[in-house]
C-alpha cells in the first residue's frame, strides 16, 4: 500500500467509505432515521477529544475507539430521552447532537491550551482532511467496510422485513432490538471511520445522500442498496479528484471553478457537493420518480386529454350528419369548450398534422380517419358516463365533468368490459353498440342525434 | 358485571381439556406508561372459529392482539397458544397488522412483501428460494392478486394493500390468524373476498381472530365474539354474547342505535 501515491490512497479510501456509508445509510433513510447518522457524527467529537487527552494522537485506533464510545453514549442518551420523556425523536436528536458537539468544541479549546503534543491532527476531524490519511486509516477503513458489507449482506432478509414492518418482524420472532442495534452499530462504525475524511459536520451527507438519490432510480430494495453503494463510491472518488485538482486536469476544465482560482479545497465539503450534484441529477432525471419525467407525463396526459376532447367535440358537432362530415365553424367548437382562440387553433393545427381534420379558413371537417378516431373517443366518454350514472348514482347533469377526467385513461379492455356490463344490465340498447347516444342533453339541439325508430 | 363475565367465560371452554385451545388468556393486564389499557382479561378461544373482537375506539382491541403476540409487555397474567407460551408457538400464528402501520412507499414489490411471510420458517441468513416464492405466488392467487405480483406496493389501492397483508399472513402457513381491522377502508368487493377467505380458513379448522368495527356485520361474519372495553365484557358464541345489553355495556351507552333495543331487553327482564 505504501507504493501507492497519496491521491491513489485517498481515492481508495473515499470510494470505499462512500460505498459502505451509502449502503448502511440506505436503511436509515428508508426508516426515516437519517438524522441519527448526523447525530452520531457530531457526537463523536467529544469522544475524540477525550481519547486524545488520555492517550495522545499516536494511536489512530484509540481515537476512533473514543469516538465510537461517544457515539454509543449518544445513542443511549437519545433512547433514554425519547423513551422516558415526552420529547419527540427529532427534537431529542437535535438536543443530543448539539450538546455533544458543543462539549466537543469546548474540549478542543481546552486541548489547544495543553502544552504538549501535535494538535493539528484533531481539528481536521471538524471538516475532514482526506489528504492527511495514513496507511493505518486506509487499513482500518478497509476492514470496517468489509465487515459492514458482510453484516449487511448476511442480514439482508432480516433487515428488510425489520425496516419495512418492525412489528410483523417481531411477531415472527426476529429479535428486533438486536437488529436495530446491529443496524445502528454498523452505521456508527462507518460514521466514525469516515470522520478523518469528511469530518463530523459533513459525515451525515455521505450517509443520507447516496440512499436518497438511489431511491429515485428503483423500486427494489436490493437494487437500491447496490445503487447507493455505487453512488456513494462515485461521490467519494469524484469529490476527491475534484478537490485535488485531478479532475480539472483530466477534463481540461474545472467543474466547480475553485481549483483553477487557486483556492485550496478541503476534501470533505467537495465530496458533499459532488453528492449533492448527483442527488440533484437524480431528482431531475430519474425515470418515473424524477421531477422531469413526472412533468412530462403530466404534460402528455394534458395533451392527450385536449386532443381527445377536440375529437369528441367535432364528433358531437357532426353527429346529426356523420356520413357527410359537415364543415364546422371554429366558433362552434369554442362555444363547446373553454379554449382560447389561440389554444383552439393550436389544437386544430396539431389535429390536421395528424390527418384527423381538414382545415379551410375558419372551418374544419373531420377526415374519414379522424372520424374513426373521434368515434372511439366518444364511445369511451359515453360508456364511462353511462357507467357513472348506472353504477355510481351520479346525477346525469354532473356526469360530463366527472367522465372527462377518467375516460382518457381507460384501456380498450376496460372499455369492452364496460360495454358488456352496460349491455347486460340493459342500459345499452343493441343498436347503440358502435357509439352510444349521449346519456344527457348536449348543448345544441341540432347536434342531438335523431335516430330513426 | 363480573358474574356476567364468568358465565360468558364458561361458554368457550367446555371439556376440551385434552387438546389445549388455540388461545387462552389468564388474568392479563396491559399498561402503557403505567396507565392500564386492558384489565384482567380472561378468555378462551375455541378452535376452528371466526372470532370478532369488538369494542369502541381505545377499548384495547389492537392492544389485545399485540399483547398475545408479545409486541407489548404484559403487566401481569399469561397467554397460551395451544397450551404453550407464544414464543414457542410462533410457527402456528399468522399476523395481519393495520394497513397504516407501514410505509407503503418502501421499495419492495407485492411478491416481496408476501414472501416475508415465509421468513419466520427460514431462520437466520437463509434467503427465500424458489419454493418460498411459489408459495407466496400461491397465496397471492388466493387473494386474487396474482397479476399484481411485480407491482411496487405504493401503486396499489387500499383494498389491494390489505389483500397483500392477508396473503403475507397466509404465507406464514399458520393455524391461528390475528387480523387487525382487515376490513378498514376496503371496497365492497375486497370485503367480500376477505370474508370468503376467512370462511375458507375456517373450513380448514383454522382459528381466526379479527378486530372488527362494523357492528352491522358482526352476526353475519363471526361465530364467536369478544366484546371489549378495557375489560372483557363478554366472550362467547355470537348468538349468546352479542346481545344488546352486552353491547350497551361495551359502548357505555354511547351507542344510540342500540339503546332502544337494550331498553327493550331490560324492560322485558323486569318483574311486571
Catalogue the unreliable spans of chain B. Answer: 1-16
Main sheet characteristics of chain A: 3 strands, antiparallel
What share of the residues of chain A does DSSP label as strand, in percent? under 5%
Q: What is the distance, rounded to the nearest whole angstrom, between the alpha carbons of the first and last residues of chain A? A: 94 Å
Estimate the mean pLDDT confidence of chain B.
85
Please identify the oligomeric state: heterodimer
Strand tally of chain A is 3
Say how many strands of chain B there are: 9
The helical percent of chain B reads: 25-40%
Strand order of the largest sheet of chain B: 5-6-7-3-8-9
Radius of gyration of chain B: 19 Å
* Rg from alpha-carbon coordinates of chain A: 33 Å
Descriptive tags:
heterodimer, A: 453 residues, mainly alpha, 18 helices, elongated, B: 272 residues, alpha/beta, 6-stranded mixed sheet, 3-stranded antiparallel sheet, 11 helices, 22% strand, globular, disordered N terminus
Amino acid at each position: 500500500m505504501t507504493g501507492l501515491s497519496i491521491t491513489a490512497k485517498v481515492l481508495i479510501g473515499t470510494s470505499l467509505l462512500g460505498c459502505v456509508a451509502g449502503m448502511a445509510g440506505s436503511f436509515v433513510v428508508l426508516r426515516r432515521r437519517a438524522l441519527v447518522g448526523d447525530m452520531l457524527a457530531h457526537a463523536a467529537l467529544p469522544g475524540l477529544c477525550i481519547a486524545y487527552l488520555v492517550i495522545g494522537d499516536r494511536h489512530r485506533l484509540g481515537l476512533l475507539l473514543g469516538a465510537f464510545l461517544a457515539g454509543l453514549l449518544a445513542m443511549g442518551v437519545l433512547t433514554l430521552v425519547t423513551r422516558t420523556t415526552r420529547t419527540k425523536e427529532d427534537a431529542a436528536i437535535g438536543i443530543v447532537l448539539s450538546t455533544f458537539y458543543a462539549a466537543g468544541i469546548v474540549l478542543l479549546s481546552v486541548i489547544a491550551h495543553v502544552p504538549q503534543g501535535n494538535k493539528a491532527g484533531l481539528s481536521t476531524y471538524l471538516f475532514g482532511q482526506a489528504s492527511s490519511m495514513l496507511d493505518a486509516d486506509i487499513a482500518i477503513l478497509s476492514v470496517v467496510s468489509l465487515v459492514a458489507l458482510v453484516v449487511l449482506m448476511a442480514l439482508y432478509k432480516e433487515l428488510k422485513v425489520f425496516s419495512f414492518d418492525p412489528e410483523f418482524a417481531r411477531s415472527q420472532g426476529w429479535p428486533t432490538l438486536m437488529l436495530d442495534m446491529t443496524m445502528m452499530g454498523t452505521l456508527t462504525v462507518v460514521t466514525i471511520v469516515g470522520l478523518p475524511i469528511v469530518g463530523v459536520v459533513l459525515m451525515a451527507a455521505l450517509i443520507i445522500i447516496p440512499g436518497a438519490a438511489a431511491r429515485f432510480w428503483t423500486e427494489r430494495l436490493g437494487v437500491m442498496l447496490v445503487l447507493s453503494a455505487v453512488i456513494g463510491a462515485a461521490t467519494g472518488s469524484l469529490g476527491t479528484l475534484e478537490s485535488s485538482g485531478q479532475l480539472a486536469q483530466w477534463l481540461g476544465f474545472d467543474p466547480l471553478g475553485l481549483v483553477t482560482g487557486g483556492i485550496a479545497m478541503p476534501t470533505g465539503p467537495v465530496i458533499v457537493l459532488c453528492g449533492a450534484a448527483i442527488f440533484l441529477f437524480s431528482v431531475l432525471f430519474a425515470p418515473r420518480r424524477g421531477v422531469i419525467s413526472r412533468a412530462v407525463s403530466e404534460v402528455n396526459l394534458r395533451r392527450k386529454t385536449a386532443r381527445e376532447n377536440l375529437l369528441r367535440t367535432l364528433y358531437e358537432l357532426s353527429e346529426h350528419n356523420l356520413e357527410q362530415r359537415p364543415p364546422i365553424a371554429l366558433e362552434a367548437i369554442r362555444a363547446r369548450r373553454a379554449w382560447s382562440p389561440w389554444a383552439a387553433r393550436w389544437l386544430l393545427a396539431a389535429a390536421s398534422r395528424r390527418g384527423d381534420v381538414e382545415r379551410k379558413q375558419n372551418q374544419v371537417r373531420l377526415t374519414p380517419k379522424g372520424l374513426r378516431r373521434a368515434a372511439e373517443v366518444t364511445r369511451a366518454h359515453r360508456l364511462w358516463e353511462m357507467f357513472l350514472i348506472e353504477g355510481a348514482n351520479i346525477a346525469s347533469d354532473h356526469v360530463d365533468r366527472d367522465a372527462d377526467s377518467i375516460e382518457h385513461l381507460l384501456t380498450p379492455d376496460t372499455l369492452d368490459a364496460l360495454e358488456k356490463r352496460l349491455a347486460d344490465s340493459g342500459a345499452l340498447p343493441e343498436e347503440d353498440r358502435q357509439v352510444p347516444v349521449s346519456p344527457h342533453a348536449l348543448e345544441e339541439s341540432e347536434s342531438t342525434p335523431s335516430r330513426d325508430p | 358485571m363480573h358474574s356476567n363475565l364468568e358465565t360468558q367465560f364458561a361458554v368457550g371452554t367446555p371439556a376440551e381439556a385434552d387438546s389445549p385451545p388455540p388461545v387462552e388468556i389468564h388474568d392479563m393486564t396491559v399498561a402503557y406508561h403505567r396507565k392500564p389499557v386492558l384489565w384482567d382479561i380472561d378468555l378462551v378461544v375455541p378452535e376452528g372459529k371466526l372470532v370478532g373482537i369488538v369494542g369502541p375506539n381505545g377499548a384495547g382491541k389492537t392492544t389485545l392482539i399485540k399483547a398475545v403476540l408479545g409486541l407489548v409487555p404484559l403487566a401481569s397474567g399469561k397467554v397460551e397458544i395451544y397450551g404453550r407460551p407464544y414464543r414457542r408457538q410462533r410457527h402456528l400464528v399468522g399476523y395481519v397488522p393495520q394497513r397504516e402501520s407501514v410505509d407503503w412507499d418502501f421499495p419492495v414489490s407485492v411478491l416481496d412483501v408476501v414472501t416475508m411471510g415465509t421468513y419466520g420458517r427460514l431462520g437466520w441468513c437463509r434467503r427465500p428460494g424458489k419454493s418460498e416464492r411459489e408459495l407466496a405466488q400461491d397465496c397471492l392467487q388466493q387473494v386474487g392478486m396474482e397479476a399484481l405480483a411485480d407491482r411496487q406496493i405504493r401503486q396499489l389501492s387500499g383494498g389491494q394493500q390489505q389483500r397483500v397483508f392477508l396473503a403475507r399472513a397466509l404465507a406464514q402457513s399458520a393455524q391461528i390468524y390475528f387480523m387487525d381491522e382487515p376490513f378498514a377502508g376496503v371496497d365492497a368487493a375486497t370485503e367480500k373476498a376477505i370474508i370468503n377467505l376467512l370462511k375458507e380458513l375456517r373450513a380448514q379448522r383454522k382459528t381466526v381472530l379479527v378486530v372488527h368495527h362494523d357492528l352491522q356485520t358482526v352476526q353475519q361474519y363471526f361465530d364467536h365474539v369478544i366484546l371489549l372495553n378495557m375489560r372483557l365484557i363478554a366472550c362467547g358464541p355470537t348468538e349468546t354474547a352479542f346481545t344488546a345489553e352486552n353491547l350497551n355495556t361495551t359502548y357505555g351507552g354511547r351507542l344510540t342505535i342500540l339503546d332502544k333495543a337494550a331498553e327493550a331487553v331490560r324492560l322485558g327482564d323486569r318483574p311486571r
